[in-house]
Amino acid sequence: MPLQNRVDPFGAIHAVPERGLFTGNRGIIHDPETKTLLKKRWALPAWIICVCQFRNVRREPMGRNRQGADQMGGKAGWTELFFLDEVTAFAAGHRPCFFCQRERATDFVGRFGEAFGIAEPRAPMVDKRLHKERLASGGRPPALIISELGDLPDGAMIADGDTAYALRSGKALRWSFAGYADPVGFDRLAGLLLRRLTPATSIAVLRQGFAPVWHPTADI
Q1: Cα 63 to the center of its chain, rounded Å
Q2: How far apart are alpha carbons 11 and 156 in whole angstroms?
Q3: pLDDT at 70
Q4: CA distances from 16 to 5, 6, 165 (A)
Q5: pLDDT in tens, 13-57
Q6: Interhelix angle for 102-116 vs 200-207, to 10°?
Q7: Where are the domains of the chain?
């Protein structure tokens, strides 16, 4: 049976068989004995995106993972979460990890500084803003009108009710845990009640030229 560790663009966590391209975490939010989530959905304001393979380290998803536990006073290591791609992870409110993705994390924070005129940007500044903005930690993304879609950068995600779309090259790609469906033109979304999922901070970083990693199904 799949573990409840797969994140959708709304930031909710599900139990589905598909894993995705990236992992990440929000701190310790599981019970290693039962391999189930606790009631809380985050333990830290730093929600990160990690690569699935790094230095030949092998972890047991939702296990105790003694390497992490030794660093945390005997508690279980962080809870492994999984994302279809970086576009999905950004929509959910995560940002690149400085441990396993230092170059991308440095680039992300640097572009954050450029976007907001901060001379010496730091990761905690990003985390503080994101924690207020992302849907899964209480943020309220604004509603959109169809004319505003063209102003959003590639890699931004929007939603029509429970249906999420990723924007790319003037098209909207319908999202699922298995990948993206055929793109539709923005005119097909006219008249729908849309809202933006990707937090404003990540939108600003994307506008500064940060290129997110897409799932291969987006190349259709």
Answers
A1: 22
A2: 14
A3: 44
A4: 8, 7, 19
A5: 999 999 899 999 999 999 988 999 999 999 999 999 999 886 776
A6: 100
A7: 4-133
What pTM value is reported for the model?
Answer: 0.92
d(CA 83, CA 87): 9
Q: In the Cβ-directed half-sphere of 186, how many Cα atoms lie within 13 Å? A: 16
CA–CA gap between residue 99 and residue 79 (Å, rounded): 16
| Three-class DSSP labels, 67-85 | HHHHCCCCCCCCCCEEECC
Question: Is residue 1 very low, low, confident or very high in pLDDT (cuts 50, 70, 90)?
Answer: confident
Taking only the tens place, the pLDDT of each residue in 51-93 is: 988 677 677 787 876 554 444 444 557 899 999 999 999 999 9
Using the CB atoms, write b or e for 70-103: b if 16+ within 10 Å.
Answer: eeeeeebbbbbbbbbbbbbbbbbbbbbbbebbee
Sign (positive or negative) of CA dihedral 159, 171, 215, 50: negative
Question: Is-contact 216 84, C-beta < 8 A?
Answer: no
How open is the CA angle 18-158-116, to the nearest 5 degrees?
A: 110
Is 206 exposed, middle or buried (CB count within 10 Å of its CB: 0-12, 13-18, 19+)?
Answer: buried
